Amino acid sequence: MTSVCKKYCLEAIQLSDKLIQLSYDGNSDCDNDRCLVLFGIILDTGSRIRHEAEKRLKEIEAEEQLEKPRP
Q1: Measured distance between the N- and C-terminal CA atoms of the chain, rounded to whole angstroms
Q2: Where are the chain's structural domains?
């Protein structure tokens, strides 16, 4: 189960990178100030997703280290 969860955490990190890049691109190319709020929300959401996925990934990796048999 841990490897499946790890896979989805990595996918969430990739998705968050796309959201963050979308917000940067939208911010720089946007010609309507009302859309800037949307890009701020996208940036915030992408950052939160990335933070939580990285946190969980570290927890999973720590659990995997504890589960490894010692020689």
Answers
A1: 24
A2: 2-67
Q: Rounded to an integer, what distance in angstroms lies between the CA atom of residue 42 and that of residue 17?
A: 11
Token pair of 5, please?
């969860």
d(CA 34, CA 16): 23
Q: Output Rg (C-alpha) for the chain, integer angstroms.
A: 17
Contact 57, 6 (CB under 8 A): yes
Q: Which amino acid is at 56?
A: R
Q: How far is CA 55 from CA 1, 48, 49, 59, 62, in A?
A: 17, 11, 10, 6, 11
Per-residue pLDDT tens digits for 4-47: 999 999 999 999 999 999 999 999 988 888 888 999 999 999 99
